[in-house]
Amino acid sequence: MSQRAFFYALAGVMIVVVIFTRIYFPTKSGGEFQRHGALPAFAEQGWINGPGPTAEELKGKVLVIDLWAFWCGPCKRAVPEIIALQKTFAPQGVVFLGVTNEGQERLKESEAFVKETAIPWPNAYGAESFFDELSVEGIPTILVVGRDGQIVWREHHPEGIEKAIETALAEVK
């Protein structure tokens, strides 16, 4: 093999490795605190774990909203970290909510997921239009909503969320 052919082969292998790494091992930057638009109104079929909050009860609060599905492994793995965050931030007035787009026909599975993972906060079910309005492309999707009702942080993993919550809490009402 000539030196030139070897160089091209090596360059090709390096490109394939870089592409493979980007696809299968994406970086987790932790999301940036930035405005992503207003949180749409909840449109759900019902609530698991008690009654859902009213719009008035959420007004002026920092919210952490976990969008999930009962069959989603990454959703299940994110729950313990979100529960730990709730223990830290709920005493400061942060409201935690869960939302699934699974409807009444999958309610038993959704209720089992909430029970199995010991999620303590209210979870809306049948919120397909809520998912659509947010243009959810993958789950879990975790949101932090500022006191002004604007989504200020949006990621598929909880890394970096603590800083976003602290920043949202520090913003003036």
UniProtKB/TrEMBL annotation:
InterPro entries: Redoxin (IPR013740), Thioredoxin-like_sf (IPR036249), Thioredoxin_domain (IPR013766), Thioredoxin_ResA/DsbE_sf (IPR050553). CDD domains: TlpA_like_family. SUPFAM superfamilies: Thioredoxin-like (SSF52833). The keyword Membrane applies. PANTHER family: THIOL:DISULFIDE INTERCHANGE PROTEIN DSBE (PTHR42852). The lineage of its organism: Bacteria, Pseudomonadati, Planctomycetota, Planctomycetia, Planctomycetales. The chain crosses the membrane at residues 6-25. Gene3D superfamilies: Glutaredoxin. Keywords: Cytochrome c-type biogenesis, Disulfide bond, Membrane, Redox-active center, Transmembrane, Transmembrane helix. Residues 33-173 form the Thioredoxin domain. One of its GO terms (molecular function) is oxidoreductase activity. It is found in: Cell envelope. This is Thioredoxin domain-containing protein. GO terms for biological process: cytochrome complex assembly. It comes from Planctopirus hydrillae. GO terms for cellular component: cell envelope. Its main location: other. The keyword Membrane applies.
